[in-house]
Specification:
With about 425 residues, the chain is of the alpha/beta class. The chain has 16 helices and ten strands. The chain is about 55% helix and about 15% strand.
């Protein structure tokens, strides 16, 4: 079995493709079970965010097509339609890829911290679904250690860069007087929380937060002196919004063209700046064709983010060195697991040999034989039993000129050269 990472991200596929492959929070448990039922798969984790959908699993090395077929069937996509966008990594490359993703080195926003929390969520989902397995579980635990070290030992997280930061930065370019704008944020997750904080830091005082669970909307809005509404109330308040930023986990659009057209009429054609961070998208793509609407997706934020990347690139080089060290370390642990069956069998054999001789020694003492003689005989017989097979193998190696086995034995038993 080999480690495999398999999927798409913002570099390999546009949002129109990524949204077709996304898993919602509600569907991941069932998807994990379906994936784990495949005979070729041992251990599975699914990571699905706005920028990537990836499967991490243990898989027979020549069965990678199993994942391709499963993805197409699960999402009901035409055969091979995803092939140009998919990437795959094996073994140490898969381990390195996961480490880099968790540290934010593979993100649109270099070094962004949110991805680590998303990977921890994916790990918990697999743990709850009993689809992890020991090796994969160990890999993810090690991943969290690596990400923590990178955050502690480098400055990769020092600059305030994120999707939320980029969205607000773009709003600052469009609105000459940002503090006078009214912002509507759709969703109540971490990205919306960050967006609200950035807006507040930039002087925006009027913030409306819409969410499926209105209680969550109220709780978040109270932190920013805003007010919360339900998703069904959006049409009643949309005309108030100069800025709309949406990031929900909905599988269907939240805002359609008709709703936005009605809001524009109420606004007397005053423009609305909109950022759709969600994957699948929350705002129908046709909205971008409306006059007085400036609609951006996560892919459009790339250029803004790129401007802020340079300050983190030096830190990223340090992070790569840390990752290389931990890849070697984890690969060593994996190799050590291959010796476990041999070590276990050896221990069982030696314990059995010892138990048999010890039982005989106890009988001899009970029958009146001197303890010192019994112990001496026990020691002699135990040495003979333990060394008989190795010595015979070494003798045969000498006859056959197999110096490799002889050298291995000297290393195994820590035999030093005798002084001259």
């Amino acid at each position: 079995m080999h480690f495999v990472s398999y999927g798409i991200n913002h570099q390999s596929a546009p949002v129109a493709i990524r949204e077709r492959l996304a898993f919602s929070v509600d569907t991941i448990p069932a998807a994990l079970h379906a994936l784990y039922q495949l005979p070729e798969v041992e251990g599975a984790v699914i990571v699905s965010t706005c920028n990537r959908t990836e499967i991490y699993c243990q898989l027979h090395p020549n069965k990678i097509n199993t994942l391709t077929n499963w993805l197409h069937q699960y999402h009901q996509l035409p055969s091979d339609s995803l092939e140009p966008h998919l990437y795959r990594h094996h073994d140490q490359d898969a381990i390195r890829h996961l480490f880099r993703v968790a540290c934010g080195l593979d993100s649109m926003v270099l070094g962004e911290p949110q991805i680590l929390g998303q990977i921890k969520t994916a790990y918990s989902q697999a743990l709850n679904a009993n689809t992890l397995g020991k090796p994969l579980g160990k890999l993810f635990q090690h991943t969290f250690t690596v990400a923590k070290q990178v955050r502690t030992d480098t400055e990769i997280g020092n600059s305030p860069i994120s999707i939320a930061f980029a969205a607000v930065n773009l709003a600052k370019r469009i609105f000459a007087d940002l503090p006078t704008a009214t912002a509507m944020l759709i969703g109540a997750g971490e990205t919306i929380d960050l967006t609200a904080r950035h807006l507040k830091d930039n002087g925006v005082d009027r913030i409306i937060i819409a969410n499926r669970t209105v209680e969550h909307a109220h709780q978040l809005a109270q932190q920013f002196n805003g007010y919360g509404i339900s998703l069904s109330e959006i049409p009643n308040h949309l005309a108030e919004a100069d800025i709309v930023i949406s990031a929900t986990a909905s599988q269907l659009p939240i805002l359609g063209k008709g709703t936005i057209e009605r809001a524009l009429k109420q606004r007397k054609r005053r423009p609305i700046f909109m950022v759709d961070i969600a994957v699948p998208r929350d705002i129908e793509p046709e909205v971008s064709r409306l006059d007085d609407i400036y609609l951006y997706t996560v892919d459009d934020l790339h250029n803004i983010i790129e401007e802020s990347r340079q300050s983190r690139r030096d830190a990223a080089k340090q992070a790569e060195e840390i990752i290389d060290h931990h890849v070697d370390q984890f690969a060593g642990w994996l190799r050590s697991q291959e010796t476990v069956p041999t070590i276990t069998a050896l221990r069982i054999r030696l314990e059995q040999e010892s138990e048999d001789l010890l039982s005989q020694a106890k009988k001899d003492i009970q029958q009146g034989q001197p303890a010192e003689e019994v112990l001496a005989e026990f020691s002699r017989q135990l040495s003979q039993k333990l060394l008989h097979s190795p010595c015979q193998q070494l003798h045969d190696a000498g006859v056959n000129g197999d110096n490799g086995l002889i050298d291995a034995a000297r290393t195994l038993f820590n035999i030093k050269d005798s002084p001259s």
